[in-house]
Design goal:
Strand order of the largest sheet: 1-8-7-4-3
Structural class: alpha+beta
Oligomer: single chain
Radius of gyration: 23 Å
Number of domains: 1
Number of strands: 18
Length: 492
């Protein structure tokens, strides 16, 4: 089967159909667009702190247009630091119960497919009026956190502010510069003090990260396949890896999310927590460690697992993403739950934090918008905008819809991959088992990085096993990529 024999496929139409099959709504209803048309401009400040003079910047993907976060930092006496994270005040325009809000609540997340993003909010909001765009004044909710010299949180406060993004920066070019592998991004040179500011943020991120790993946060590096599109056609798949600036933003956002969760707890409000529970498949994680000659405790222990991961990263960095992927699959999915004042925190196992919520992406994730409204009710001295019953229902819906959105995204990546694999029927590839259950056995081919199903030879294999597979069948419209096992490889 040659690639040029494939029928002409409209990947955007296919994505739209995949969303409908997963009970997601791909298009905005007329009443939503009517509401959007009534906005004359971005929300204006009332009793907001004016922080526009701070050297705020955004760091995101090269093509990101929905900018949710800005960062800024200061060095304090005694080796301490102050970090500021500004989050777009989406609630200032998207009011609870509005048609826009009801639509956002339907999908609960933006859905990212190879040829089209299906945004949670209309683009006039998410990429303009509620986006922290460069050289624009916008309302934000700011987390101001004092970080101790060892990286722990000393104190925090949250408040409404008026901010200005002085530079829209991109992960890859900024990381290359910080690593000494590329030139300084041109935009950095235009803003006085920004170069020093970025070096400071990078330094603080290392401090924050080291502290979390001392607490047991897991060292994980995955490679996510991303289609390369030219003139509307898929021409390649590239591996999207973490880098220095992705880590920087992750560390600052984890700190802001922790501060937000503690803020709501401090004011005796229930909160929508993002949790990753103690892994149910710890026995399989222990088996994988034993294959490398290491022994993990019988009971789940994040610190011991992290030390094992660090040793594997040091000994075999090339194949570490494969091990990371297996561990991530065995940890299980995250979920949203409601935590009430006085409850013992479930926490986030892989991040090694007890107090954690999602608050930093309200343009593209509905749980973050819920959390923002809870925080703003404190600012305004109003009762909670949500009843306990509403929060419980929303927690379940956000978990379920996020799972459905991820299934759509995986399916569409597979459909894109088929354009590259259809001429390779009968070829053999090294692969990693990423899922094994009565519903099926799933694998990831390592090069090109694509996911598929093992339809034969799945006996006696489990998550984390390295196997040799043969590609036997692809189905573009259904997103099927089927393999059979050729042999089982020895652990590296």
């Amino acid at each position: 089967m040659q690639i040029d024999s494939l029928p002409q496929i409209d990947l955007t139409a296919l994505a739209r159909q995949a969303m409908l099959e997963r009970h997601l709504t791909p298009d905005f209803p007329l009443e939503v667009m009517k509401e959007v048309s009534q906005f004359n401009g971005p929300a204006q400040p009332t009793h907001h702190a004016d922080l526009r003079s701070l050297i705020w910047c955004s760091i995101d993907n090269d093509d990101s247009r929905d900018l949710d976060q800005l960062t800024y930092a200061e060095a304090l006496p005694g080796g301490e630091y102050k970090i500021y994270v500004a989050i777009a005040d989406v609630d200032s325009l998207v009011k609870k119960g509005s048609a826009i809000d009801q639509y956002a609540q339907t999908n609960t997340t933006s859905v990212y497919t190879p040829t089209k993003i299906f945004p949670m909010l209309p683009e006039r909001l998410s990429t303009d009026l509620t986006s922290l765009n460069a050289n624009e004044d916008r309302l934000a909710v700011v987390s101001e956190v004092i970080v101790k010299s060892d990286g722990g949180i000393k104190s925090f406060k949250l408040y409404p502010a008026y901010v200005r993004n002085h530079a829209k920066l991109a992960y890859n070019s900024l990381a290359a510069w910080l690593d000494g592998q590329g030139p300084i991004p041109e935009r950095v040179t235009y803003v006085p003090g920004l170069e020093t500011q970025l070096h400071l943020q990078d330094k603080i991120a290392h401090v924050l990260r080291n502290y979390r790993h001392d607490q047991g946060a897991l060292t994980l590096e995955t490679i996510e396949p991303q289609p390369i599109i030219k003139d509307g056609q898929i021409i390649d798949m590239k591996a999207s890896e973490k880098n220095r600036t992705r880590n920087l933003i992750e560390d600052f956002m984890i700190t802001a999310n922790t501060a937000t969760a503690r803020f709501l707890k401090e004011y005796q409000l229930p909160s929508l927590r993002r949790v990753v529970r103690i892994p149910k498949r710890w026995d399989r994680i222990r088996e994988i460690a034993e294959e490398y000659g290491e022994i993990l405790p019988e009971e789940p222990d994040a610190k011991s697992l992290d030390l094992f991961l660090i040793r594997r990263l040091f000994r075999d960095p090339l194949h570490f993403p494969d091990l990371s992927l297996a561990v991530i699959k065995l940890l299980g999915n995250g979920e949203y739950i409601v935590e009430y004042p006085g409850d013992e925190s479930v926490g986030h196992f892989s991040l090694a934090v007890k107090d954690y919520t999602h608050s930093t992406a309200p343009n593209r994730r509905y749980p973050d918008l819920i959390t923002q409204r809870m925080v703003k009710s404190v600012f305004d001295q109003n009762p909670s905008p949500y009843t306990s019953k509403e929060l419980e229902s929303l927690a379940r819906q956000c978990t379920e819809k996020e799972d459905e959105a991820e299934k759509v995204e995986r399916r569409m990546k597979k459909s894109a991959s088929i354009l590259l694999l259809s001429s390779k029927i009968g070829e053999k590839f090294p692969a990693l088992v990423t899922g094994a259950s009565p519903k099926g056995t799933w694998i990831r081919v390592l090069s090109p990085p694509v996911d598929g199903k093992l339809i034969k030879g799945y006996e006696n294999v489990d998550v984390g096993d390295s196997i040799q597979v043969e590609l036997v069948h692809v189905d573009m419209e259904k997103g099927f990529i089927d393999f059979v096992r050729v042999s089982k490889l020895k652990p590296r």
